[in-house]
Structure to design on (133 residues):
């Protein structure tokens, strides 16, 4: 089985799930290279031991056992796996446009959340303001 982090993580990137994972299968941590430029966190399906410790820690209910991922978010199963299998440039080529569009829609609807800020994203061009720290 394994768990997947789905769409609600975009514009959130809360790392509470990272902190409780007993096998360090959820990335990126805030101190990892690339955290600032990613849209969401990812679970490594090959390392996940299916303990479910991460699920209650997620403030936006973004984590699901693979068999329970809602139909609208099923592509996130492959997306999480690809994060660990692909080079960053290949991952961005495959998923970057989808991530940016979904992130933009969430940010426009909810406002930009400080922890969800993505370095390099053109907020001003999209009519969004980055919250002050």
């Amino acid at each position: 089985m394994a768990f997947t982090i789905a769409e609600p993580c975009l514009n959130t990137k809360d790392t509470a799930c990272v902190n409780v994972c007993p096998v360090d299968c959820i990335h990126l941590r805030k101190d990892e290279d690339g955290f600032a430029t990613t849209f969401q966190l990812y679970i490594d399906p090959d390392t996940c031991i299916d303990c479910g410790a991460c699920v209650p820690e997620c403030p936006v209910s973004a984590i699901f056992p693979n068999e329970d991922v809602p139909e609208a978010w099923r592509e996130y199963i492959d997306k999480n796996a690809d994060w660990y299998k692909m080079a960053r440039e290949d991952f961005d080529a495959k998923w970057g446009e989808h991530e940016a569009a979904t992130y933009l829609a969430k940010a426009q609807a909810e406002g930009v959340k400080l922890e969800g800020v993505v370095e390099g994203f053109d907020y001003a061009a999209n009519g969004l303001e980055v919250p002050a720290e």
In short: The radius of gyration is 14 Å. The mean pLDDT is 95. The longest strand covers residues 3-5. The beta strands are 3-5, 26-27, 42-43, 63-65.
